[in-house]
Amino acid sequence: MKKVLATILALVMALGLCSVSWATETQVKGTENNPYDLNEFNQLTREGYKTAQQASGGTLYVSVGNFTYAEGSSFVLGNGVRNDTPGQSPNHSKMNAYGENGYKGEGNDGANGRKVIFVGGTITSGATGYTSIDDIPAAANLLLAVPAYTDVEFKGVTFNNVFRFDYQLYTSPWSVLGEVKFSNCTFNGLIVGALSAGKVTFDTCIFKDYKNTTDANSSNPIW
């Protein structure tokens, strides 16, 4: 009887520990089971981003949702702007603080070199065509406003129309993203221009036929 009671007690304790572990995982914001929505993620300061990354173990999940941005505007994933003016002081109210981005090893304040996974949803740009890579409309810009050397992954996202994936790279010192990866994504459009990353990967993606509405002879995508 004592052995039976001991076994039952051990099972109860084990289940209790599993429940605590599960509750902790689901309560931590930015995990796969409890991702940020895009609005929440885009409001993170640099310090808030570092805290969130520490809590989630170095990878943040963000649910994309369905977004369309109008012609003449650009789309931002993260918190920051593309501002290449030299001599700026680091602004930690932004995720991609100028003057902090370039550090990977010594000098890294803890924000650089993490991973962000954008999951699900649809992003539609306001640009259906472009004339040349020297004249890409602002509505094609999707700014990855995340710290330097971040590994960015898009997972199961659908992209409609023309995109240029932009990044704040003219910092002091120079910086780039780590890997930009597209997993199980669908492209109903084109990717044009340079992509500032150490590595770009397309894994099991679908590329639909797409016609450049501005200049049919300039339909040269990045892939």
What does this protein structure show overall?
The chain is α/β, with parallel strands linked by helices and 223 residues long. Helices cover 19% and strands 28% of the residues. It has three helices and 13 strands, in the order αβααββββββββββββ. The chain has helices at 2-27, 38-42, 46-56, and strands spanning 36-37, 59-63, 66-68, 75-78, 115-119, 122-124, 141-145, 151-155, 158-166, 177-183, 186-191, 197-203, 206-207. The strands form two sheets. Strands 3, 4, 6, 7, 9, 11 and 13 form a seven-stranded parallel sheet that branches. Strands 1-2-5-8-10-12 form a six-stranded parallel sheet. The longest helix is centred in the first third of the chain and has 26 residues, at 2-27.
Short description:
The chain has 223 residues and is of the alpha/beta class. Helix content is 19%, strand content 28%. The protein contains 3 helices and 13 strands; from the N terminus they run H-E-H-H-E-E-E-E-E-E-E-E-E-E-E-E.
Quote the distance from N terminus to C terminus: 68 Å
Instruction: Give the SSE string.
Output: HEHHEEEEEEEEEEEE
Mean pLDDT: 83
Counting DSSP H or I runs of 4 or more residues, the number of helices is 3
Characterize the biggest β-sheet: 7 strands, parallel
Shape: globular
Give the helix proportion (percent range): 10-25%
* Radius of gyration, CA atoms, in whole angstroms: 21 Å
Query: How many beta-strand elements?
Result: 13
Q: Structural class, judged by helices and strands?
A: alpha/beta
Strand content: 25-35%
As residue ranges, the low-confidence spans are 17-24
